[in-house]
Design brief:
Layout: H1 81-92, H2 98-110, E1 112-115, H3 123-134, E2 149-152, H4 157-163, E3 170-175, H5 185-198, E4 202-206, H6 209-213, H7 217-231, E5 235-239, H8 248-260, E6 265-267, H9 279-296, E7 301-303, H10 311-325, E8 337-339, H11 343-355, H12 360-365
Parallel strand pairs: 1-2, 1-8, 2-3, 3-4, 4-5, 5-6, 6-7
The structure holds glyceraldehyde-3-phosphate.
Glyceraldehyde-3-phosphate is lined by residues 115, 117, 151, 270-271, 305-307, 338-341.
């Protein structure tokens, strides 16, 4: 497991893989209040992330373990869909200088949840994935960071745990009947407990979209709270499956409910439903995180996932995170990208930045 000198768990600002930096791109970090796609007058003060509160222990978890008898989500700002798309598109067109690009590509490796979620997964395939996670590019003379985590199905957790035992890499498991979430709450809770006990450091659970779309927000909150309790001190990522939520307003509301229920991260998608991660949806979720942080002081992480296969769009996500939340979120403790096939392009683009061209042999050697 990835460790720090102070604790076997990761803490904010302690990662050796990523340091905060102010040389990243132009524009003031965390300045999204002026360009919010929601009503920016709701909060009077600007986001201050200079001394971020630690992500762990999660203050929401130190509250009484049983959720309030009746939960009603607070009023959340209405999302201007056109503005969200335009702003995402503006951010996507920002140019990134070479030096910042190299730094960004390296950070993206450290922030990657290297994923295999296939019916045909085997311990052997997970072993190869873990080797790739430990040494992303064995043929390179350059030092690359290891990835943030490997993400697998529950039965593969022991194999992944064994493979990364002595490495600074977390094991993430999906749970709660991923990807559909279609099972009784007790069964979903039991699965979270199983992967927790099998050695997962991070647990990615899906929300009950059926209940959410029926307007049963109290039930969605109660269920996520139960999954959060079951995950204990493990790091809980709550997947909204935004491709099924129909509107940006729904994404915004689901983000809030998940955070209120104790999510350590909110995550866009399972990768099994289209559309998966998109820039506008990610922007809406980042703004929800920003506003929640302003209101509660609790930082929540963000994980876009699904369909992110190339370095260029991945870099755009980093630009957006910095713009909305600032440098304090540019760490594996607060930002991840979930992807099964992004890593090789990150490595190839790093090589191109270093040598000014691709080496054709490298395409073949990157397994
Ligand atoms: O959580 C991660 C996703 O399942 C990965 O999706 P992907 O295979 O489209 O990269």
């Amino acid at each position: 497991m990835r460790t720090t000198s102070a604790s076997p768990r990761r803490r904010c600002g302690t990662s050796a893989n990523a340091t905060t930096s102010t040389k990243w791109w132009t524009g003031s970090p965390g300045s999204a209040a002026s360009g919010s796609v929601c009503d920016p007058t709701r909060f009077g003060q600007s986001l201050d992330v200079r001394s971020p509160a630690p992500l762990w222990p999660n203050p929401a978890r130190s509250m009484p373990q049983s959720p309030p008898a009746t939960y009603r989500p607070p009023q959340v700002p209405t999302v201007d869909e056109v503005a969200a798309r335009e702003r995402a598109s503006r951010l996507a067109s920002r140019s990134i200088k070479t030096e910042a690009k190299v730094e960004g590509l390296k950070r993206l490796i450290a922030m990657l949840d290297l994923t295999t979620l296939e019916g045909a997964d085997t311990p052997g395939k997970v072993k190869s994935l873990c080797q790739k996670a430990r040494t992303p590019d064995p043929g390179s003379d350059q030092d690359h960071p290891s990835v943030g985590a490997v993400c697998v199905y529950p039965p593969m957790v022991p194999a992944a745990r064994e493979q990364v035992a002595d490495a600074d890499i977390n094991v993430a498991s999906v749970a709660s009947y991923f990807p559909s979430g279609q099972a009784a709450l007790e069964e979903r809770v039991a699965e979270v407990e199983r992967v927790r006990d099998a050695g997962a450091d991070e647990i990615d659970v899906v929300i009950n979209r059926n209940a959410f779309l029926a307007g049963e927000y109290e039930r969605v909150h109660r269920e996520i709270s139960a999954l959060a309790d079951a995950s204990g001190e493990k790091h809980l990522k709550v997947i909204l499956e935004t491709g099924e939520l129909e509107t940006y307003d729904a994404v915004r509301l689901a983000s809030r409910i998940a955070m209120d229920a104790g999510a350590d991260f909110i995550k866009t998608s399972t990768g099994k439903v289209k559309p998966a991660a998109t820039m506008p949806v990610t922007l809406v979720m980042l703004e929800a995180i920003r506003d929640y942080y302003r209101e509660t002081g609790r930082p929540v992480g963000m994980k876009p996932a699904g369909g992110i296969r190339k370095a260029k769009p991945a870099l755009r996500y980093l630009v957006m995170v910095r713009e909305v939340l600032g440098d304090a979120w540019l760490t594996p403790e607060r930002f991840r990208i979930g992807a099964s096939s992004l890593l090789n392009d990150l490595l190839l683009q790093l090589e191109k930045e270093r040598h000014g061209r691709y080496h054709s042999k490298r395409y073949l050697s990157l397994g």
